[in-house]
Amino acid sequence: MKMKNNMVIFSLAAMAIFLLVVSLSGCGAKRETAYLEPDTTKVVDKEKVSELIKTANAYYEKRAEARSMKEALKMYEKVVELDPTNKDILQKLAIGCYWYATGHLTDTEAQLEYYNKGAEYGERGMALNPAFKKRVMAGEKDYECLDALGKEDIPSVYWVFGNLGRWSNLKGFTTILKNKNKLKAIADWVTYTDENYYYGAGHRVLGTYYAKAPSFAGGDINKAKTHFEKALKISDDYIGTKVLMAEFYAYKSQDKELFVQLLTDAVNKDVNSIPGLEFEQSVEQKRAKDLLAKADDMFE
């Protein structure tokens, strides 16, 4: 009964906040998008760039160590200073900034810095697509131009979502609402373009979106379940899917049994089940352990 009352109070509070946000245009933290014009006249020292990438990759392989990961990111940044149109490295920076902030940082301001940088690198990668860049520069909203992008742009686009989503969450509810249209459009586009990308990433984030959002803002618990189940069908090995399904779908559904089952499976999953993703799996597994320890309090 106590939990039901808390859920009712939360829903009423969320409605009140939503109405307040709608009435106050311009509220919420803003960030500048990074659709920069790359310097295509710069002569690229290919040998130097190649050596930097090789060294950076060696550091990135040891990204479970915070110092090594930070050094890798610094070197990748030097690469894009020398070669601003290197989409592969821009995408790697978008991914790396996300996981550095998520897996190694605890200070909110530091996390905000890296999530913002990660989103910027993803946006710079998107802007290398000339059709997309032309439409954005003509005044269209970036998330309304996603149809100009191709499958090769998925890493840029998806990790804009990952970084922007985390940045918005840290900034607060009004910022989440401010960015929800962009986040939803990206999730839809990634799912439509390649539902298998990053172990069902599009379905995973759509499941989170529909579970997390209140009904008046587009939330739908049944759609959430459908998307989470599709993500699990694509890959049962990716720990993050089970964690998000427990944290948002099972909790919102008040299904403690499912909550515990999903997180227990996540905790027992071998982090080596996806070769090359041991660090990221370990980060997700730690979140699973933390949530599982709170189960009795969350469902009292």
Highlighted features:
300 residues, mainly alpha, Serine Threonine Protein Phosphatase 5, Tetratricopeptide repeat, 0% strand, globular
Query: Can you count the helices?
Result: 14
CATH class of the largest domain, named Mainly Alpha
Specify the structural class.
Answer: mainly alpha
Distance between the termini: 9 Å
Q: Helix and strand string, N-terminal first?
A: HHHHHHHHHHHHHH
Q: Could you list the spans in which at least 5 consecutive residues all have pLDDT below 50?
A: 8-26
CATH architecture of the largest domain: Alpha Horseshoe
Q: How much helical structure, as a percent, in the residues?
A: over 70%
CATH topology of the largest domain: Serine Threonine Protein Phosphatase 5, Tetratricopeptide repeat
Mean pLDDT: 90
- Report Rg: 20 Å
